[in-house]
Amino acid sequence: MRVGILTGGGDCPGLNAVIRAVTRKGIVHFNYDILGIKNGWLGLIEGRILPLDLSAISGILPRGGTILGTTRTNPFKIEDGVGKIFAQVEKFELDAVIAVGGEDTLGVANRLHEKGLRCVGVPKTIDNDLSGTDYTFGFDTAISIVAEALDRLHTTAEAHHRAMVVEVMGRHAGWIAVEGGLAGGADIILVPEFPFDFDEICAQIQSRRERGKMFSIIVVAEGAKPKDASLITQTGEKDAFGHARLGGIGNLIAREIEMRTAIDTRVTVLGHIQRGGSPTAFDRVLATRFGVAAIELVKEEKFGYMVGLRGNRIVPVPFAEALAEPKTVDAELYEIAKVFFG
Ligand code: F6P
What we know:
Elements: E1 2-7, H1 15-29, E2 33-37, H2 41-46, E3 49-52, H3 81-91, E4 96-101, H4 103-114, E5 119-123, H5 139-160, E6 163-168, H6 175-184, E7 188-190, H7 198-210, E8 216-221, E9 233-238, E10 244-246, H8 249-261, E11 265-269, H9 281-299, E12 305-310, E13 313-318, H10 319-323, H11 331-338
Parallel strand pairs: 1-2, 1-4, 4-5, 5-12, 6-8, 6-11, 7-8
Antiparallel strand pairs: 2-3, 9-10, 12-13
């Protein structure tokens, strides 16, 4: 068997752990040839494919990013992109492709599978918004970074009696905001799933001050929006999957708080710091388990599936089920977060 592996979409800590697990298990246990496809689907279109051996994966477990590189390429938006992919699959004699990615990359994998590509998926995103898996790898690292940032912001917020607005990633889903915010003791958490009200935010900050808490930490997901308003985007431009670049909601909230309460307010945008650096132990283990399970699915010739975590078990999940709709923050978890608001 000759198996290609690619990483697509936004990178996240743990991608290298997946590549290492697939390669190691594939070579040592199944005697497969493993080939690395550079830069996501783009590398499969262009034929940028190279063999991976044990020395190529040596020492990569703790490394962030991806040794294969990544892009947000949508082959269905490129002239004859799909035809070129099938030509390269034939040229490089690939028997199967493992696609490591989020909803966009796996959406392409699903469509290519329907056209005959033997494909298996591995769910990746710091946003944790893919259905069919309790967790995606990268998320635990991201929320650990948010929690550490909140610990640091607490001390300076308290010293200056300020409100601190912390903007985190999370386009459609507020998992990073809710779980990072809970871990870091945020006083208010705002997520895309539940549009917010400026009067309520200001009342919560004021009520803290009335009981002697002169500072407040407000965590906001980039995709959160006020009631009856639309998303805040940086530019009108959209990527190949139709996503606008988000960002700016933190500044908007800070301006409103200052205007309405006259409380000195600062903004921190954590941005790509949440995606960079070394994965946590949890993410290394999850990514490794996903990688081993993915190459086992290839061995079983179970194509059209993604590996997923359910409870503490890794299970195959049909692409269609995983991609049906994004996994969003449920009201029950948000209620827990709200216990600590104000
Ligand atoms: O990986 C998903 C994500 O983290 C989103 O939350 C965010 O909107 C996006 O990536 C930003 O990615 P980039 O700036 O790399 O396009």
